[in-house]
Amino acid sequence: MIFTSVELEYLRSQRLGRLATLTPRGTLQNSPVGFQVDEDACVIAIWGRDMGNTRKFHNVAANGQVAFVVDDLVSVSPWVVRGIEIRGTAEALTGQTPPSGYWSAEVIRIHPRRIIAWGLGPDGGRTSRQIAPAEPAAA
Description:
Blueprint: H1 5-13, E1 16-22, E2 28-34, E3 36-38, E4 43-46, H2 55-63, E5 65-76, E6 79-93, E7 107-118, E8 126-130
Antiparallel strand pairs: 1-2, 1-5, 3-4, 4-7, 5-6, 6-7, 7-8
């Protein structure tokens, strides 16, 4: 399991995140997106209405470098924030079966390589860890 139970609980409670991708010109693009956690595949899945025609989809297809942030403000007095940042690689897939008829058949799947979390769990501290890439399946 890549995500801790506390991280999964938090991700399941949120609906929006921000996906940062690298454009072919070397600049960054940051997009608000809905997401799903695919616990079986250990990835974050990002679907959309016309995903295959978006700049973020083409950016991922070109280089696969991403950062994804989900955060929220629990309180302003006292100031309490919580969130999770997932850095890693992503793939832009076509011809997929979306979980909703509203979404197109393209998806961005994020494979975490580094997870940074803050304000989660009973201690509310900050954690950071590297995730080893999955080993390729034997032929």
